[in-house]
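As described in the Methods, two query proteins were run sequentially through the folding procedure within a single session, without resetting any intermediate state between them. The first query and its resulting structure tokens are shown here.
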Amino acid sequence: MSAVQSSSRGISIAGIQVTYGLGSAQAVQALAPVDLEVADGAFVSLVGPSGCGKSTLLKVLADLMPPTQGQVSINGLPPSALRQAGRIGLVFQQANLMPWLTIEKNVKLLKELVQAKSKSATDLPRVQNSQTAQSVEQLLEVVGLKGFEKKLPHQLSGGMQQRAALARALALDPSILLMDEPFAALDEITRDRMAFELMRIWQQYRKTVIFVTHSLAEAVFLSDQVVLMSARPGRIHKIYDIDLPRPRTEDTRLSDDFIRLVGEINRELYKVMLL
């Protein structure tokens, strides 16, 4: 089957609603209609009160759950086509590495599973690969794990395990990278270091990233846009364009503009929580 390409780049979210237990007395609306456009190669963070549907929206984008209503397209394709072709990268709070496999084999695992599936399924949609695909060895060097290829996960720190999880996602050469609080379980110093590493890697690969976090400073530091969601049922309350110059450095966090943006979003979040 020939590769599928589309002239429509980026993510388009139109009228997405999610209700858990639809039709039952215990039905809970997690997402009210959500409309959002994300440019190709953009880094966008989702912030908002706990339970506002940030992770639910990520699951819809990843084709891990269907929306109750609405549509999503990623580079002009439904999420299901990209997931079946192995072109959606996911990074969660926990690295979820296979403890019996070396770091090198962990990073290769998903890519090998997708390749094996594509060989056995003649109807699997083919999505055009980008020009950024790199070998596992190159990826491990990019994420700072060169020399740790033969180590087992328990021999690495939490931050290093998250680096391996990021390399595993990038090995798929994903069209989008979905990250659900990937640094939440790390100590503050490691978390800050990982934010710098993620920014450096994103600048190299320019993948479209949707990043869920509870840290407003982290969101502002990393993002092109910060999307503030309302309390459940989650809606897009406000979108902030982050026009801080790149590449961002430690001095960025000390700048008046950075402090102003974090404060502005924090004040608006406080209002949202009182609604």
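Immediately afterward, the second query was submitted; its sequence and tokens are:
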Amino acid sequence: MRSSNPVFSRRGFSRDNGYAGFNTAPQAGGAAVGTQGNPYAQQAGNPYATNPYAQQDLQQGAPPQAPAGTGRMTMDDVVLRTGTTLGILIVTAALAWALLPVDDANIGRSYGIGIGAALIGMVLALVQSFKRTASPALIVSYAAFEGVFLGVVSSVVDNRIASGAAMQAVIGTLAVFAAVLVAYKAGWIRVNRRFYGFVMAATLGFLLLMVVNMLFAVFGGGDGLGFRSGGLGIMFGVIGVLLGACFLALDFKQVEDGIAYGAPKEEAWLAAFGLTLTLVWIYMEFLRLIAILNSND
């Protein structure tokens, strides 16, 4: 079973016979138990089997802990890379907001640039997701183009639908991130196979409904089946935020397992990429919710 986040399904964050860390690594900072089920222990086909940092502690019977200065991923690495990708995304979003006006005379051009940036960002994200190794250049480029798209969309909603919507969406995203982090570290959220299966099934159904709604809107006009407007739009917006929160819990589990089992330092870029994708998802759902609520006033 692969990770919910396509980024984490790359090597090092999953194993052939199951989800990394399920039934092997304890939740929220507990000790890893031996080499059985450890995706970074010596085993056939394991890309990290030669990683000396993952093996050193395990051979001594202790939980793997990454000492400072080793070639193993640490939480500091994940925080730094995530801060880098989010920082680039925020800067390009601010530039797009300032340089691409959404008044009546320029909104068509701004929309075009925003959609173009979104398509490029999507292609870059897909390429990185299917690569076997992290590519910082791809990840940084994705963040830059995604920032342009978010800047245009946020400006449209904030200036033409609901003043202050962008800041409200940012606050909502940060609140969800903090709440899920606290709940995960406190053990209130237990990430296991059942949780993973539920989130994946719910997400697949959610995405299929959104695609069907979009097709009806394109070929039938209007709001399609109404899944993104009115009362249904509010309900599906809340569901989208909740699914994003579930993805965050899965992301936290994958990062925790990668650190505990001695993933190489460059894998922190994949962790940052996955967290950025999830945060963008949550932000967009909040922004859409705010737009729907203000459209109904």
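Residues 128 and 137 are 10 Å apart (CA to CA). We note this only descriptively and draw no conclusion about the first query from it.
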